[in-house]
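2024-03-11 09:14:02 INFO worker-7 job=invfold-0412 stage=load source=structure_tokens
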């Protein structure tokens, strides 16, 4: 299917089952590797188990001890680990397959291992997700009533479990996915996945900030940059009918004071959103290295075949600002020619030839990013 057709007919409209989306797919990560990652302090992981007899659910958050996993048994539990693409380059290598979407919209690849019968219950997500079956088989039940022109399903959650599980679930579709099959689900579509046998599922989730999150960051930015001289003012004040009343005139002045803070400059607004998008739901905070090479040493190393690799937690986007480009990396902003901004936003690694082709502004940005920890030296034996 051409990407244009998918975006026109399915994206945020209705589910799509794609059989053999990745022909001959073999999981780049094994269940034991996922369990090992869930034992790491910096990894975000959860363990969800279901007691069918009492229909009760248990949720535990990592990191976990290695000794735990042999005690879990062979059914009705699921291990989920977020941001596996940040930890495993082979998992991250799946992301170019989704290049028909804006890269900044893709959040992470979550990997889940489920023992037979394992599930996280019937639920809805508030973002688009692609569910790629990597190993074993999982049965997906989906309620696509609204996409089929029927009455939208009611969304009410159970109040007896920690998870946000649906109180009522009435599927319209029932599919079993094997390795290489993929299911796309728009936001708000109720679904329920249960492992038919021990299986791995990759969830490519989209980044979808809520309006409240956007507004909160926007207001924080406005307040941080606000001119203290901008204040509530009432030079037209008249004797009030009731001094204890906040009247309509006072409300008009309050609105005028708020409007004075509005970000009317489209360039400033664009820069705010670009910064926000590179920081929202970041997997972790990149720290500067203990020591960095000098500019001369860095350029010498690049000339000798050393490459720079962007930190897996670093997010890069670019935007046009008039005739120039602005590069944003995890909240940092750099002005440079459009060509440079496009190159650096797209390049997970940077070699000497690419560096030499940058303008002075582009090379300055690279060195600043090295100092901040967003680029690391990569030599052949590191690969």
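2024-03-11 09:14:09 INFO worker-7 stage=emit residues=383
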């Amino acid at each position: 299917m051409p990407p244009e057709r998918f975006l026109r007919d399915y994206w945020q409209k209705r589910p799509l089952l794609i059989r053999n989306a990745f022909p001959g797919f073999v999981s780049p990560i094994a269940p034991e590797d996922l369990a090992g990652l869930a034992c790491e302090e910096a990894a975000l992981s959860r363990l969800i188990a279901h007691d069918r007899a009492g229909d009760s659910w248990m949720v535990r958050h990592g990191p976990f001890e290695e000794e735990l996993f042999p005690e879990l048994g062979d059914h009705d539990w699921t291990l989920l680990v977020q941001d596996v693409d940040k930890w495993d380059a082979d998992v991250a290598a799946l992301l170019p397959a989704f290049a028909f979407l804006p890269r900044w919209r893709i959040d992470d690849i979550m990997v889940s291992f489920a023992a037979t019968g394992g599930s996280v219950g019937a639920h809805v997500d508030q973002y688009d997700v692609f569910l790629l079956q990597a190993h074993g088989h999982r049965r997906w039940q989906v309620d696509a009533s609204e996409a089929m022109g029927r009455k939208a399903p009611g969304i009410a959650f159970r109040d007896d479990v920690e998870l946000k599980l649906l109180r009522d679930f009435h599927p319209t579709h029932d599919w079993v996915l094997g390795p290489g099959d993929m299911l796309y689900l728009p936001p708000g579509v109720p679904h329920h996945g249960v492992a038919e046998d021990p299986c791995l599922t990759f969830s490519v989730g989209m980044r979808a900030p809520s309006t409240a999150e956007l507004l909160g960051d926007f207001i924080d930015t406005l307040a941080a940059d606000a001119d203290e001289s901008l204040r509530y003012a009432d030079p037209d004040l008249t004797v009030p009918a009731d001094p204890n009343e906040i009247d309509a005139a006072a409300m008009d002045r309050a609105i005028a004071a708020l409007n004075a803070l509005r970000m009317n400059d489209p360039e400033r607004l664009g820069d705010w959103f670009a910064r926000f998008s590179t920081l929202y739901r970041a997997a972790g905070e990149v720290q500067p290295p203990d020591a960095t090479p000098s500019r001369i040493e860095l350029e010498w190393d690049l000339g000798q075949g050393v490459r720079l690799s962007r930190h897996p937690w670093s997010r890069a986007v670019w935007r046009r600002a008039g005739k120039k480009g602005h590069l944003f990396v995890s909240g940092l902003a750099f002005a440079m020619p459009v060509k440079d901004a496009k190159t650096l936003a797209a390049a997970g690694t940077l070699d000497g030839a690419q560096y030499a082709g940058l303008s002075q502004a582009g090379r300055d940005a690279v060195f600043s990013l090295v100092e901040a920890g967003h680029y690391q030296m990569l030599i052949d034996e590191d690969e």
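2024-03-11 09:14:09 INFO worker-7 stage=report msg="Residues 220 and 226 are 10 Å apart (CA to CA)."
2024-03-11 09:14:10 INFO worker-7 job finished
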